[in-house]
Design a protein that fits this description.
9 helices; about 0% strand; mainly alpha
Amino acid sequence: MPGWFKGMENIIRERSLWPQRGLNAQCEGFKCEPGKTDCCCRRLLFTQPDFVNQKSCLEELITSHGHICDFYPKYHCELNFIEQYWGAAKLQYRNSPKTTDIKEMERNVLACLDDVPDVSIKRYANRAARFINGYFQGLTGPEAAWANRKYHGHRTLPASVVAKLKEEFLKRFGGSK
């Protein structure tokens, strides 16, 4: 019946992958053993090629309209300059006069979003680009943050500078990567 959820067990049985011993729906706390592909129904299905290659509904909608869909890692605001822009706008809003009228609140929010200077937004974008580039070149979180403070003249960190920064970071703060 199209549009009805069959259940994980039925899908796995249709593919002739159901083991004699059976399977749990998922591992305890979603913590599957590393390297196992058949420890639970969830992991078994997620490793199937048609599940791996399936885009989310949101991604399909965005790409169908001719746009690029790019997801940032969860909880990494330094990689998303929009979060930094939003933070600056919230600071402006907190300093605006208090009101109880919803229309006036909406006007205040829009005014606060407009009050963040374009140059600040560009700086947030450049900062995010430097973090992304630092991670791409193998820096850890603390190293990337330190490199971003130390070298912020360009959108990317040159490889020679990354090597020097890693060396200096290790000298100053010790420890390993």
